[in-house]
Amino acid sequence: MTSEIELSQSFKAYDVRGIVGESITAESVEAVGAAFVDVLGLAGATVLVGGDMRPSSPEFADAFARGATYRGANVRMLGLVSTDELYFACGTLRAAGVVFTASHNPAAYNGMKMSLAGAVPVSSDTGLYEIRDLAQTYLDEGLPVSGDAPAGTVDSTDVLADYAAYLRSLVDLGGIRPLKVVVDAGNGMAGLTTPAVLGDTLLPALPLEIVPLYFELDGTFPNHPANPLEPENLRDLQAAVLAHGADIGLAFDGDADRCFVIDERGEPVSPSAVTALVARREIARARAAGEETPVVIHNLITSRAVPELVLREGGRPVVTRVGHSFIKAVMAAEGAVFGGEHSAHYYFRDFFNADTGMLAAMHVLAALGGQDRALGDLAAEYEPYFSSGEINSEVRDKDAAVAHVLDACLGQDVTVESMDGTTVAAVDGSFWFNLRPSNTEPFLRYNGEARDPETMERVRDQVLKIVRSNA
Predict the structure, then answer these.
(1) Domain region containing 46
(2) What are the residues whose beta carbons fall under 8 Å from the beta carbon of 262, sequence distance 6 or more?
(3) In 3-state terms, what secondary structure has residue 391?
(4) Quick check: is 1 in a domain?
(5) Are residues 26 and 114 in the same domain?
(6) Beta strands of 324-413 (E only): which ranges?
(7) Can you list the positions of beta strands (E) in 237-337?
(8) Is position 86 within any domain?
(9) Positions marked catalytic
(10) 0.85 exceeded by the pTM?
(11) pLDDT digits (tens, 9 = 90+) for 144-182
């Protein structure tokens, strides 16, 4: 009997995302739990299972646990966790695990992010598609008879206090000047983790006055989507920063692995600037510990200010493709101390090479509170260029659109690279832009940067006109 569920609809290159009741169900999750254990050889081992605040997460966590224990794993239920809490648990407990979340996606969605022991990601390169294919077999044909192998056990643990204490051990906020901080949790998991890490619910108080915005855990997202990458979802935070006269605003996505920063004027601080700021701190710390040339990873569409700063501070910048599995793999291979992406994912060697929005936020708070200037003035050091941001164009023939752009560049003094999409850069350093096709949507994504706003706007408009003429 063939199942109505086709797992290929929800399994992506790095995680699983689908519409609840359609492409992801309790039945399919149970099969994935069994396949997770079988493909990764986890019979007799501990498997960690947690979930976010979405209404379907508890049911899916239980279903995954049923499948995993049926195949002989011993499941430890973590309850409500952010994605970076799962990474912390996988890293410190040396166990594989899964968190049920659809991150910034709308309320109708849920999904899975999987990790091996040590917080190594399970992706298309490390078994995710094999899990998908075996789970599809189990859905179509039924779970295999377990035979004489004993079923696994289920117990539970809460890692929030240990997670909060660990983060505080990495960044000392005790001696900073008092700061007023507005935090928009977007009804996501930061509503649980912020009071634990930055507040006084589990640990001694810090010199931070936290102004909470949408801390109620509610996976229906009644106030705004938990996707701070979209400017309209930052408006409430920007208004609250101004209304409260706050020093800084922080916005987290639904599963709290990404953090966006707002300055005292209500203006966004670019993720590239945050990357540069944190890189400076992490390079200094590593060099003080005797590391000669600390490595910092950045993807190819972060600001050129990032590699320039890394070199000035005595580090070595390494560029990689967009995407967390690429970043994490290069982090491990290079022994990098830190990595950052334009999408506000920040990766730390001291956090198992995994991404954590909260730790990045703590570095920004430490830098701000360790000196007397306002955040806008501090951040200006790290934003010498003018960026277009990411602009999507719906294009039928992406290759043809890029080819037309390159034809228009003929005769200009530029270089062309094809590491991830197509990057065109002026030889004199006055501008660069990247055109990158989406793997999952009919979009061609434009990112560009220039030394002055006029050049940035001129190049942006010229390129987008050519791209959209192919729509």
Answers:
(1) 7-158
(2) 182, 234, 237, 238, 241, 248, 249, 250, 251, 268, 269
(3) strand
(4) no
(5) yes
(6) 338-340, 346-348, 354-355, 386-387, 391-394
(7) 248-252, 259-262, 268-269, 295-299, 316-320
(8) yes
(9) 103
(10) yes
(11) 887 667 899 999 999 999 999 999 999 999 999 999 999
